[in-house]
Amino acid sequence: MRARRIGALIGAGLALSLALGACGSDKEKTEAKSVAQKAKDDKKLTIGIKFDQPALGLKKPDGSYDGFDVDVARYVAQKLGVPANGITFKETTSANRESFLGGGQVDLVFATYSITQARKAQVTFGGPYYVAHQDTMVRANDSAIKKPQDLKGKKLCKASGSNSFRRITEGPPDGQLAIKGVNLVEASSYSDCAAKLKNGAVDAVSTDDLILAGFANQQKGAFKVINAPFTDEKYGVGIKKGDKETCEAVNNAITQMYSDGTAKTLLEKHFAGTGLKFATTAPQPEGCA
Length: 289
Fold this sequence. Notes:
single chain; alpha/beta; D-Maltodextrin-Binding Protein, domain 2; signal; Bact_solute-bind_prot3; transport; Solute-binding_3/MltF_N; SBP_3_CS
């Protein structure tokens, strides 16, 4: 009898402990910080950027970071309460942006991250902070490719994790032109695509004009952009799905960046002399979903 009473007491204690633990877990979930709150409290953020895209996100030999995305990230972080020395930049590729946000490896992503309906299912987007346009880059001495339709029968680079090739080879909703007979060549990144274009492994690279302008300007005389844009690519700030507080704070910062003239200054800093015609008015926000 005594043993049964002791067993009952132990069981009751275990049940109470589990119940309290569950309550604690629920409370922790409820009180999970938004990135905006974390920025305000900790004065630190980990931000995902590209490390290999000249004029956008580039890690230089001395370990510093340069580019339009980098400078926009610093501006937004400062508006969230994080100084430049409170930012840790983490290399983020086209293939791992969603997993890095979902897994908490980064707090925000500024990495030529085009807003699409498919990505909205996995990520909340702030912005856009710029609307780029897909164009095509070829070797400087190439006179055969003057418009996207000339890519039929040509070798087009397909960068891992990027959807740009779909705009050439597929129709809507994910594609655009549905050009048949394009031969896709796999590459790990757009810097790899530029290398393949230079050595003749591909005939063309098609993606956002800001990305192409950066490579063309870095290797002057090697490449040219054909100036035949055919899409709008809305560059968004990647945020973990559901963090609307941070999304709204990011949108406010982007609005200020255009109204105070910083956006124009940064675009001129990184793209003046490339022949790129860039917009200097704030894009319409997508809305925080």
